[in-house]
Amino acid sequence: MPLTAHVQEVTLPAGSTRHRTPLDVGWATNVKSFKTLSLVRSEPTWVRPTIYQALTDHPYLSSSLILLKSPDWSNTIAIYPIGTLAADHNLVVEDGTIMSSLIRASGTAHEEAWVVCVKADGAEQRDIVKAAIEAARSVVPQAKDSSGESPSSRLWEGIGVCSWEALSCNDNRPTRDLLLSLLPSFPINTFLIDDGWQDVREPHERQRVLHGFTPYSGFGASMKQVVGELKARGVRHVGVWVTMQGYWNGIDPESELIQRYECERWPLAKRGHPRDVDEAEPEDYNLVCWLPRPRLAEAFWKDWFRYLKDEGVDFVKVDNQASYEALVGSGANESLKAMWSGMLRAVQSTWGSMDRVIMCMSHTPLMLNGPGGLDFDRPPGPLVYRNSDDFNLKYDERHTDFIQWNTYTSILTSHLALIPDFDMFSTAPQGRLPLYHALLRALGPGPTLISDSPGEASDTSLINRLTAVHRDGARKAVKMDRAVVLSHNRWFWDNVQGEGGGPALVASVPAPRAHGALIGAWNVRRAQKGADAVDEIGLEEVQDALGRQLVEEERFVIYDVALGEGSLERYQTVTLGSRESLSLRIPKAGAELLIVAQSWQVGESSISVLGMLDKLAPLAGVDVYYKSGTVTITGKFRSTVSILVQNRTPGLKETDKQGRRVEVGWRQVQEGWVGSIEFGPSDSGIEAVWTVDVSA
């Protein structure tokens, strides 16, 4: 039964710049004692998913989504605000009361917005955020459901390199020689030239501004030459980093760009001022930002992007988007919207596809609660969206927090018109936890970007777990097409990142075409005082991973791939009502991968398709069909596909499309047998195997 959503219309009166309205939904108002999970904007550029013991503990900061759990844990409430290009919309908690908070973005007219409230109990709680987003789309007629859509281009099908770690290690700026030295021994699809390539000036301390569209004088070559050399060495697509302001602090007042785009001077808010809460005051030392006049914002972006395209550049990463809200003064938000909308239209007109821009430092109402995420009043299509703060920040909890931020934030972003991007990661050195991070990237649809430091040999064995040759002949990233999300039954657990021993962080992503799912389990205990993560994976986690309840007579296996050093492959069968579970013990800095696979009756045997056990997304590109006692497996990658057979009998047959027997390598795991079947071309010259039938 579909969940019922209550939609409250709220208004921003004509002439008002801000307006707050309390919720009028009875069951969403008497909730001060409810446990709270909030996507709270605790940083100017990022939301932080945070659990509070009660709503009254919520800080005076804006939120993009509030989830409430009743004291008896019987029901959940989701509250989601919807804004427009004309009015930003978020939630603010005042003395335990949830308020709609509208902030004018343009014009002076009366504006309408909405708050969606959904209440669910039992198994329906799993779908509460999905129901809230569906209701949001229903009240904004032009909103489109492009969540889960494949990008319209093939830009992100392979893996790539990002230059950031090479720059940050030694405070380098990118040069032709440095960038070429970062090309790895394995083939890559994309190369992102990160911060530092632009022609910038520093007229005042702590102020770096854009002087022109071309690279700085020490780049060592033209952009066209560098891009050409990268592509000559096998890179298919090259991208560059910019910010929403051109550079961090806007445009150089001494640049000819000032006159060309009639740039305006904006004071900036005091550093650290909470966004979307109260009016900001200008910075004490009069730090300012020069930006194009709104009517010329689109022209600014089109001119720059056309230059870049002419130089061979194929995509852009637009950073520091949320910091744009630091502008102070009448018309500041209008300037923001003009630059944001103009940038997206320029991407569309220049490259023709919205996956050609990575939206970064962009955790704003515009993206999470408005046109960006709901896909209206902008060029259509899913946007690549940095889901969290940066990889490898400089503090103790940087790795554990990173997993937490992304799997919790995906509770919302996985339902929006966004392609969650889990940022780059390193395959070496081991101190950056390569496998720990690689697992997260494989369990999502975003770019797979490697950022290893100069002098560090990339771990090609890990690269091989992330890639395979597709049946079309191209080497591609093996990854899921939806984002991994924290297991619903654990949304309100508050001891996952505690000290000492305790549960793991458990998140999952469905693989419906394979009749299964993947579960990632990470130890995110405290870096200094944490210990092993000890957990049980059972029926609740299986149902959360599949996104549905099991029905009578269905059987699934939970198969432990054994990522951890010294761990062993094993499995557990679960059925509706079963209490069996698979126990986990994960050491610090460790992670495990579990496959959920449906079991099919074939003669006297039970068959479960495990997929590619040598990959971190084993079920990616695997389709499974069952009809009349036959399991049919189709694969898209040249790889080894494994099946688990319980009660293996001599009459079991594995054949290709022509009915020829295929070779299967068998090994025993517990009481079952794992069979390995090679998919793709064979050395013997026989037609490539992409489909296998298992029958009795």
TrEMBL record:
SUPFAM superfamilies: (Trans)glycosidases. Keywords: Carbohydrate metabolism, Hydrolase. GO terms for molecular function: alpha-galactosidase activity; galactinol-sucrose galactosyltransferase activity. It catalyses: Hydrolysis of terminal, non-reducing alpha-D-galactose residues in alpha-D-galactosides, including galactose oligosaccharides, galactomannans and galactolipids; alpha-D-galactosyl-(1->3)-1D-myo-inositol + sucrose = raffinose + myo-inositol. This is Glycoside hydrolase superfamily. Belongs to the glycosyl hydrolases 36 family. It comes from Papiliotrema laurentii. The keyword Hydrolase applies. Pfam families: Raffinose_syn.
